[in-house]
Every structure is written in C-alpha cells, then in structure tokens.
Amino acid sequence: MKNFASLYILFSLLILTITGSCQESSPVEFGVSVDFNESHAINKDVYGVNNYVATRPYYTNYAGFIAKYNDLGKPLIRYPGGTFSNYYDFKTGFSEAFEGGGKKDSLRETSINAGITKYKLDTGGEDYRKFCDFVKKTGAEFTLSLNIVLHTAEENRELFEGFKAEGVEPKYVEMGNEVYNNSYQPAIPDVEKYIEIARANMTVLREVFPDVKVGVVCPSHIYKYESFLDKVALGESDRQIDWFNKLQNEDFFDAVIIHMYSVLGLDSDTPQDEYYPYKEAYKFCISHADGKFEKTVDAMRAGYPGKDIWLTEYHIRDYGLTNYGMRLSYMGGFFTASFMLKLFNTPEVTVSNWHSLVQWLRFSNTTSLLPDNYDFTPLVNYHLFKVFKDPVSNSDYVVPLALTGMKKYQGVGEYTGVYDDMEGSLFYSETKASMIIFNKLEQPYTISEENLLEALSGLDEATLDSCREFGPSESMSLDEALNSETAYSDIIISAENGYYTLNPYSIYTFSFSHLTRRADLTIDK
Q1: Hey, what domains does the chain have and what are their CATH numbers?
Q2: What is the mean pLDDT of the chain?
Q3: Whole-model pTM?
C-alpha cells in the first residue's frame, strides 16, 4: 500500500509536469499598438559592421568579399578594426607596440604580425590603399578608427592626405579605441592627455576633411559593470571614472563612443567543463541588455547632452573563454540582432558596428591569399544581420512597438529584474512599413491579422503583404539549432484562421504597403 501511494504521488507529479509543460508551450495571444508621435528619423548608420581583415587571407577589395558586402546592402563599415587600430602602422602595413607598453602589448604586436605575415608579407601587409580601392568600388561609407597611440597628429596627417589622394573620405573618425583602459596609461597617462591628443588630431583632420564627424571614447565600464555608475555617484575616483567625468567638460567633439559586450555568466577563469549551454548563457546576455542598456544611455544623455552616441562595437562578452563558440552560433547572433533593435529605437545612437563581419565569412584552410573571386560561406550571423537590410533601406522613420499581453521573464546574474519576453519596432516610410518583432524566449505567441492592421491606424490605410519568419532550423532539435553556426529557417508564413503564430527564438517581419500618412501626423525628431 505504501509503495502504491508513492507511485501515485510520482504519477501525479508527472501528470502535473506534463500538463505544465503543455500549458507553457500553448500559444499566448498578445497585442500590438503604435504611437506614431514617438517616432524618430531612422539612423541608417546603425546598420553597420566592424571589419578587421588584417590577419585574414584576403583584402576588402577582393571581388569575393565585395560580393558579400554588397549583398548586405553596403552597411557602414569600420576600418581598420578595434584593438588592432591602436597597433596599426599605416606606413608599413604591420603592427607596432607603442613606446612604454608592457609584455601584453609586445605579445599582442607579435601575435598580430604573425597573422599578417602569414598571408600578406609580400603584399604590403594591411595596405590602407587597398581599402580605399574597396570604397571606390562599392561606394561604401566608413568609420576610421584612428591610431592616436602610436602616431602623432602630424604623422596622421599623412594618412588623411593619403585617403584624400585616393579620392575617399571617412564619414566618421574615432579618436582611438578603448584607450581609457589601464594598459594604455604609458602612452596616454590620463584623460587630460587624451583630450590634448584628440584635439590636436581633430585640428589636423579638419584641415584635410572639414566635414568629417569626430567621436571621443567613453569608458565601456558604464555598461560593463553594474557598480560603475554607483561609484561615480559616490564621488569615487579612478582612471575610468575621471575619464567619464572630465570628458563631460569638453565640447569639441560630435559624439561619444562606447562599446557594449553583454555578459554570459562566465569569466575567463571558468573551467571548460563548467561552461553554460548557449541557451543558458543567452539568458545572462538578455538580462544584462534589458537591465542595463537604458541606464547606460540615460547616463550618457545626462553626461553628454546633445552629443550623438556611437556604439562601434557590440556583441557577447566571450573574451578568454577557450573553445566557447556562442558568438558565431544562432543563439549568439540572435541575441546581437535583438540588441541592434534597441539601438534603432534610441534616437541618440547614430552609429553602430556589429562585431564583426569577417567572423561571419567562412573560408577553407589556406597558407596563402585566397583567389580574388573566392566564394565565402556566410554563417548564420550574416543572415541574422541581413534581416534588417530591407526594413532599414526602405524606411525613413522608426518607432518602438507597444506590446501587451506577453509574459515576463526573471533576469539572472546581476540583473534580476522582470523583463519582457518580446520587443519590436516599426520601420516605415511614406509608402512602406516593416514591423519587426523578436520572440526572445521559449513561449510561443499569437497575434491577429486584424490587430496588426489596427496598429497602423496612425496611417490612413495599409495593406499587410507578407510575414517573414526567421528562426532556428527545423531540421534538428531546438538546442542543436540554437548552437548551430550555419543552420536556420527563413520562410514566408501565412495566418491561420486570422492569426499568426510567433515561435520561440525567432524574428518576424510583417511587411505593409500602400501607406498614406495622415495629414495631422508630424514627425520633427
């Protein structure tokens, strides 16, 4: 009898578990509305990529690379990269550590040069003139990450005039890359020295390119560490806090630059056998982004009023995690695409660069330069980024969606707030609109076609033309699909009985046409 009672309890728990699972997986209806008065002009340069090709077996002016770049719709491109830009000697095409740098900098110089010489020893290393050729062939607009650590302002004049002689001009120039970090102290002792160097370089730059926009670097610690802004408020002092505070007293620049890498719940000393599955690490990423992005932007708005914000690098923070490939997986790319949506929804963010285009292009093992017309295999990050291509190119405005009826999730790690399961935006022009909705977690949802059309009631009329579903591959288990670097599903779906179903970890693009904006609707943001 006792055994029977135990079996009965176990059976009851099993039934509850199964029932709960079924209930959890049953679609939940949600609603959407749009307040067109919250619209702002779309910043199309948020659709941008970082691109560090120096250690790759090709140049940007290769026909094979150009084909893939053009296919993305010619996004804003960053040159010559991030950290590499602080070591790049444009005169030689190779890497050189700055004077006074420590062992880490020497190792970095050696490592970078080993990568360059492996493929480009006989072709001039990373020759910026090949990049100029790429710009002329494609019409690409670019951000120049300037080396202010190794070169003086007058030395950089040679680079500016070199670009001009080639007939190309940067649209934006960054004064260094993350030079607020302690490792750059021998070259740039403090923020006062940084301001002096940045001013000198800007003076020379504007003599060659009068209209170029200039950004200065702001410590990424604002986003990286939950405690940073608290320390600022308490009046504490260190290199990064002083940098953040004293830069606010200056007004010679157009924009402040920040990098945002979202945590995985892991750090560089985590043993490999304790690494989280990607889906679990992803939960840390979205918690960080949902819990800290707005706080970071608010701090920058308050500290640097009227200045643009450039996010010239963003992705997951996986540095030091050996053999942890989440960055290139569907899960890592899906997170980063959802993060880019936040950037489009933020008017002050005018430039961003997903890190990094070269990581999305797979090529065969080689010890020499690839053929000029090499056909790269794009990874899933490439396709996730490209989801935004048409909505961005076809739109003049963007507005966040108001979503109701969805569930909330409990954040993890340092960000334990309660956040939305979904988020979305409407990208639109006078004649077309794209409503993009991310279902960020495992709960499926439904929405009526009627509600989607009602959401555009701020327009005189609209026709719902199609719904594109971009999601994990359906040819394997969900976990396998989320871990994959190459597999995905990209299909057009139809409403069933007037309703669309939004599946887990998927992006939905509802396309509308025949729009006529109401005469009383004005957008002057």
Answers
A1: 23-39+395-513 (2.60.40.1180), 44-393 (3.20.20.80)
A2: 93
A3: 0.93
